[in-house]
Amino acid sequence: MVKLELRRDRIVARWGDWKSEWVIEPRYWRNPTIAITALFLLPLLVQSYPHILTMITTANLYAAIAIPLALQILGTARVNFGPQLYLGIGGYTAALLNLHWGWSPSLTFLAVIVVCGVIALLISPTTWIAKGLYFSLITLILPLTFLDVTFIWGDIFRGEVGLVGMSPLLNFTKVSWNYLAYYYLSLILMLLYLLVSDRIVRSRLGVNLAAINENEDVARMMGVNVDRYKVVCYVFPSILTGIVGWFIVHTFRTFAGVTYLPLEFMTKVLIIVIVGGRAFLYGAIPGAYLISIVEDSLRAVGPSNYFLFPLVLILLIVFLPRGEGLWGLYRKRRPRDYFPKLHVRRE
Amino acid sequence: MKEILIHIALYTVLWGSIYLLISLGFSLICGVLRIFHLGYGVTFVLAAYLVWTFMEHAHLGLLPSILLMVLVQIGFALIVFYKGIFERYLEEEEVLLSLSLLVFVAIAHLANYLFPVTAGVSLPTTVVDDVLTVGGSTIAYQMIVAAAVGVLVTVLYVLFFLKTRIGLIIRAVSQNLLAARLMGVNVNGMYYLAMVLSILPPTICLLVIAPFWGVDPFMGSPLLMTAMLIAILGGLGNLKGSIVASYLIGFIHATVSFLFVSRFMGLAALIVTLVVMIYRRGGIFAGETLW
Amino acid sequence: MLEITSVTKTFGGLAAVSEVSFSVKKGEVVGLIGPNGAGKTTLLNLICGIYKPDAGSIRFEGTEIAGLPPNRICRLGISRTYQIPQPFEAMTALNGVLVSVLNGKKRRRMSLSDAVFEASYYLEFVGLFSKRDTLARNLNLYELRMLELARALATTPKLLLLDETMAGLNPAEAERALEMIWNAQEQFDFTILWIEHVMKIIMKAAQRVVVLQYGKKIAEGPPEEIQGDPKIIEAYLGARYAQHP
Fold this sequence. Notes:
heterotrimer, A: mainly alpha, 3 domains, 3-stranded antiparallel beta sheet, two-stranded antiparallel ribbon, 16 helices, 5 strands, B: mainly alpha, ABC transporter involved in vitamin B12 uptake, BtuC, two-stranded antiparallel sheet, 2 strands, 73% helix
């Protein structure tokens, strides 16, 4: 069926007419391997501090939201100012189905994919109809409107209090093992997203997406079917974000729209993308960890952390080098890599 | 049925005129500086809480507090927003938008921290403290005053932009920056003027609606959303469009409130805006010009 | 191969192109000249699908292409270059040509490495192979023009639309570019419709020349005929020069 060949530096897979090559680059695998091993071993150091464990779990989830956002910005050539909309939609779908109809986590997983996909398809025409700035504004407004909707039907959505008591994904007898398991699950989720996005960006699809991000009209002239790529690049990351919502529902077992939908949460995710610089796909991980650590340390200060946190974020943006961002502090010499530019105002 | 129609017509005019005040400043910045001022909601919060601070803690009268507040607001807008954010990050728009938003969020939470709900912040800016009964509904006179002020301010602004020399210069800057520079326009000065002008309508709006709308640290958010919807619907940066869109959104809100359920006001406005975007990509009066 | 019949396009009140008709046969090199503002680039945009003509029809090898989206037109075999080069700025030269190779024709089965191989072939043809890893924003004008050409060739076109390729090049570079285009036409066998202002080049390269002024076609014929035509001279230089050659 699929014929695999091992050449000197690549693996070639063939199926009839179709051919795919995977270049093996051991030189470039050393640092990612070290980083991933470090991430896997991290909880063993902090096992005695459960709140640090929750903090790094949250960091993984932030990164898992920022990575699809980066992919979306690359492919639709527009900046999405409201990625948390699908977080809310996915979370509420999973929570409501679980609470009221007793669906198990695997069934809610499928439901979340379907619901997020359908809604994303309905909203996707804005990617090619609305000009860049209008698109950003509409995406800014959508989560806030969804928040309003949750308050309108407050009896279903439970407004401020949120929904509680959803079934967990895993349940060990020792509570600390739960925390550990959730960390590893979130880590695997984030790494999976990173792997998928990395594969996409380095493939033929990635070349086309980069062309669309650079100059849509010229890309059209070269034969790229821009509208189709934009829809795919809007729907797929939205589904991924919805899955993160599903994950939150079943691990933290409470879900309130007020936490995830308003502007404050959006600024956190957007800062991760911005601080990640132009290599924001990979810079999402250090960015997410940074934000999570800052957030947690400020929480110790007391109620004034609500206005200190935005101020600290402002300082971070102003003083961190933004050309390559956090990832630029550690940069590989790969001139062939494409570092996209965020375009907000786009015709 | 006739009553409902009267209600709808009445509230369209009232709300539309108030929305005019809310969206005027936003459209102005959009049209002249070509920047989306996501921190626009901060003018409302600053207006309310600065006046309260000056009155309660500095024991100034109402009028001096208002004047001092306007000065502080102008300083804040010019130094923090214009010099600090807009000028430095003109090329990197995502940074600009995020920073403005963060400043807004920071100020809102600061206000919430210093003056929580229990502090009972309210502004004694009621002009007429009575209610009017018209066609079966009671309307506070203050709301009528607010609407009238809205129309008055808008008329003044339109006259300023159409009839005065400086208004002409600002319109030129909004259409073609390079050409205006070539004609010797002091663009920076015009930008300062535009920022100052954009502060006045929301401040006045807050002062007149505080008695019946209530003051709340997080009131900037929904007001910003309304301003953005109006700007998108009317065409970004276009004053004509803002005026038409304000009344249109007022009409939508009034219709939804009185014919259906009032909870769906915001959602209905958003849906209508999206539908209009499908047919006219730039809003109703699409065009990169202020008027 | 390409038949343009009575094509009209108005913007607001201005008729950018009005009732222009001509045709291009397979294997020809047709020049499109005219003073600035004559509507040449607009005509090119109409053929490429960026604009839709208000009236008239454009037929390419028998199929009507007047309303099709640009990427369909590219698939049918029409490519263009731009007057002001529009490379993909943050991508390397190789990546830029790679986009064309992956999307130009029905080559879906191509893996990334094969596509890179093909893209390097086109880069080598125009002489840019040594610059394949430079970001497009670091190339000079001649290299950018060659990159545009490579990008257009990589979509294996049947009809190539060139938009003022020689503008801004000094005479030596212009000679090299012309050589390159002739080589390409010999090797890849396509038809050229060429907008140009540099008269020497057009008179040397084109077999037939179409002249536009204010959106209308005012003359058509072999270059020698056009050169002496007083109407053309008047169009370019004004009536005074037409009377005293």
